[in-house]
Prior knowledge:
Blueprint: E1 3-8, H1 15-24, E2 35-38, E3 41-45, H2 49-58, E4 62-64, E5 67-72, H3 87-94, E6 99-105, H4 121-151, H5 155-173, H6 185-194, E7 202-207, H7 218-230, E8 233-237, H8 239-245, H9 250-259, H10 266-278, E9 280-287, E10 291-298, H11 303-310, H12 312-316, E11 318-325, H13 326-332, H14 335-340, E12 345-347, E13 357-363
Parallel strand pairs: 1-5, 1-6, 4-10, 6-7, 7-8, 9-13
Antiparallel strand pairs: 2-3, 3-5, 9-10, 11-12, 11-13
Helix pairs in contact: 1-8, 2-13, 4-5
Amino acid sequence: MTMQLGIVGLPNVGKSTLFNALTRANALVANYPFTTIEPNVGVVPVPDQRLYDIAEIIKPQKTTPTTLRLVDIAGLVKGAHLGEGLGNQFLGHIRGVDAIAMVVRCFSDPQVPHTTSELDPVGDIAIIELELALADLATAERRLEKVSTQAKSRPRDFQGQIELLTHLHELLASGASLRCADLSIEERQMIRELSLLTGKPCMYIANVSESELPDGEELARSVVERAAAEKAQVVIICAQLEADLADWPLEEARVYRQELGLSESALGRVVRAGYRLLDLITFFTTTGGKEVRAWTLRNGLTALDAAGTIHTDIQRGFIRAEVVSCGELKRVGSMSAAREQGLIRLEGKDYPVRDGDVIHVRFNV
Length: 365
């Protein structure tokens, strides 16, 4: 699977600058440029040093990272749910993503006007959340009206749906965020079916001035506090700096980030936050020494699920999985040494895949 993030925010907060920085920042991947699918959609390789550690051992002909799909959604404004500023179209773009990356302006620049007279990151978040909630409210109302009409002839068949939709409608009307609400499994499923925006996981990206790196100042801290209250992920970045560094030689950019107290690029930090937000892991495969490849999988899924991620035929003919952790493989230095030392385990289809597993699936179709 490819993680999909929708970059949202008010106008002039740095969304497009961040998008451009992320889609050009393929620092760890040689000869693997990003692919632009549409003018506002990009696919970028996920930086993961473990992939290259494995490749250094295996010496494959090809090294393929897993990917992140980014959707740069135009700035939302008050009244977006009613179509202001093409809001309906832009809100529709959010429905297809796995999670929302909400960019919040925490920098001052008189040359870049803000939508309000004073910078108020938490207030900006509230504006976006309100527009998402109002759009969801309209969606819930339409579905409730449709189901209520269907229930006139068969009330028992639709009673459960009406109760679920009524509860979701009440929550949205009260201003509650569905992602933070205490909901049943059935209600969560209904949220997914309706692609409700406030039910999507959300991370905050505090866009600060370069001088305020690495931890930001008062405005960024208010975003961090908001995220902590929601148990959400937050990343503090300087989008303009990252866009500039994307054109630097890789080593010079790395050294400069270190001088600023940054351990990795914005792309790396956004990816890590997204994986935590969506509870994702990475596993690796080697194909007879021809290719070393990284794959994204939801935490808790099995070796059979991993096989299906690689190819449906492999899943259908699954026999067993040979598994070694990338840490153990790096320690012993070769697959043959790992096999000799009994580090390669034979696992069945129900084995829960762990982050960093190197897997070779035996199958027969």
